Amino acid sequence: MTTLAQPVGSDLLATMNPKAATAAGTAADAQNRFMTLLVTQMKNQDPLNPLDNAQVTSQLAQLSTVTGIDKLNETMKTMMQSAQASQSLQAAAMIGHGVLVPGGGLSLAGGKSVYGIELAGPADAVQVTISDSAGNPVRSIELGAQPQGAIALAWDGRLASGAVAADGRYQLSVSAVRGGAAVSAQPLAFGEVLSVSTGSGGPRLNLGAGLGQGQVALSDVRQIL
Question: How far, in Å, CA of 143 to CA of 118, rounded?
């Protein structure tokens, strides 16, 4: 005997996927419940003491406000999803490109290294100090006056003695002044975007673990090289 498959009922769908059913029916259910209560209230009102028109109008206005908020939430959710999709496309286009992000790591390879600094305001004098992995300063570079913002720079690998530094990892620090007052400054590390991952918090750029940066947010990128 052959048993025919039965159509899947709405009750079963709601049981198997309660979140989807709840999300789809929340706004409509709220309106239906409100109107049912209002009609019931009007049917059972005391003829000698009917409902006040102002109260009915106020209740309808509240329903309209709730409905408007629900629609606004849905619109904002759609806009956020669209913005995240756009950010993911922008991030994917950066794969294979070098970027500058906040960080003090510096990698010297073949006597060459790229790094950067970011100044909160223009400065009369900027000094960059490069230290080895043990924290010992090996080179101090005077950059003179610099404008506000992110600036890409390069180190030729020369030590204070003039000798060429060994390839490897170094640390970077920066200080800046204007008119005798300190200017907020931070070092920027260079990394190549290897891949992009997405999530609820937006796209993340994978720069590898070479400089200790790992994954960074798209908003951390100060400059694309």
Answer: 13
The ranges of the chain with pLDDT < 50 are: 1-17, 19-21, 23-24
pLDDT at 13: 40
Query: Are 115 and 182 members of one domain?
Result: yes
C-alpha distances in Å from residue 138, one per residue of 15, 92, 164: 67, 37, 11
CATH number of the structural domain spanning residue 124: 2.60.40.4070
Per-residue model confidence (pLDDT) at position 40: 76
**Residue 196 is assigned to a structural domain of this protein:** no
Report the DSSP pairing between strands 123-131 and 185-192: unpaired
Residue 112 DSSP symbol = B
pTM exceeding 0.90: no
State CA 70 to chain mean position distance.
25
Nearest to 137 by CA among 156, 160, 166, 114: 160
